[in-house]
Amino acid sequence: MSNKHFTLKGISSAAIHSGSQGFPESSHLSPIYATSTFTFDDADQGMRRFAGKEEGYIYSRWGNPTFTVAEKTIAALEAFNLKDKNGSPLQLKAMLHASGQAALSSLFLCNLKAGDKILSHFSLYGGTHELLHKVLHQSGIEPVIADLRDLNKAEEAMKNNAELRMVHIETPANPTIQCVDIEAVAKLAKKYNLIVSVDNTFATPYLQQPFKYDVDFVIHSTTKFLNGHGTAIGGVLLGRDIELMNTRMTKWHRLLGGNSNPFDAFLLTTGMKTLELRMERHCSNAFAVADFLCGHKAIAHVNYNGLSMHPDFATAQKQMKHPGAMLSFELKQGLEAGKKFIDSLQMCTRAVSLGTVDTLISHPASMSHFGVSREERLQFGITDGLIRMSTGIENIEDILADLDQSLEEL
Ligand SMILES: *Cc1c(COP(=O)(O)O)cnc(C)c1O
What we know:
This protein folds into 2 domains: 11-272, Aspartate Aminotransferase, domain 2 (3-Layer(aba) Sandwich); 275-407, Aspartate Aminotransferase, domain 1, CATH 3.90.1150.10. It is 39% helix and 14% strand. The protein is built from 15 helices and 12 strands. Residues 99-101, 125, 127-128, 170, 199, 201-202, 221, 223-224, 233, 235 line the site of pyridoxal-5'-phosphate. Pyridoxal-5'-phosphate binds at residues 99-101, 125, 127-128, 170, 199, 201-202, 221, 223-224, 233, 235.
């Protein structure tokens, strides 16, 4: 091979090739390094590795070659075609975690301490909401909640909370598919010297690259669209301050112990190779579903950020390549209709989670939010007849036919 510099022009090429070079025994794909520890040739080598003077693996909670392949790939996707302040290709460091929740835990616990506050919004993934309001709260870190889609309210919260250290944005967010303007909120946050993190799980780097703006960290639940097939739980934390990532963030990650495992990392690497193809199909199917539902007599309302009537349509158009694969809709007839609709499905999968090749449909009022009081869930727009859908990549005529026959049953 020549060592000519060759820049990849397309993101699928990056997804397929970024992590995959130089495997032992001429292996085409990454081996699954199922090992807890790594050997040293002699005591001196052990010493050099511990001192950071020699590259090399030591112990799999600290790092593993199968993780590295996935980490390099995700970093390449999030940085794809982006430049740093000096105009050079943006460098990012990714740290693979056991789950999206583990990545969020590292992110928050490494950057916040007792007495600090963190600003976020109402519409958040359930686990993130509880992490902020239970775990962080109990550790003396106060969540401040504001509608970050309203820049006046966002700035007011930043101005009025001297202890604020960080802003955490999730966009698009569950289950109303609300979108926050990353560029605008990050700009405000920097005026007040705040750390900015974005949960990019719903969008993936194919649809949205938060590092284009003044964002410090991005997290993903790789369980969803990045893996794409629902084969493993996983998470990733990415940062642009490589020095910080290599020191304090690495230390915290190792000590908190939220490491991935080689088999799940391998499944993730395999899944990511088809990210662009899958996202294109996920999104075009979602668009067709939203269009179909909008005209249906049993439907009261459709939440999809690709519809011009969605309040965040303009924000989605600005920062996303396509509006995404997630949508929710409200049945006119409420709770019993919601259950009946779900029970009548013939092909679509009845399940929570999202981002798999099959269409996943859930009914928050009887499933994910069953334990939440009716009053509280109505406040967040989770009505009795709300159905959430992660649009899959099946043939669109079958998805539409399944929805149609289920709606006929009502
Ligand atoms: C699923 C999800 C998480 C949590 O990820 P896990 O992999 O389940 O731990 C966090 N944020 C968002 C937006 C999610 O969808």
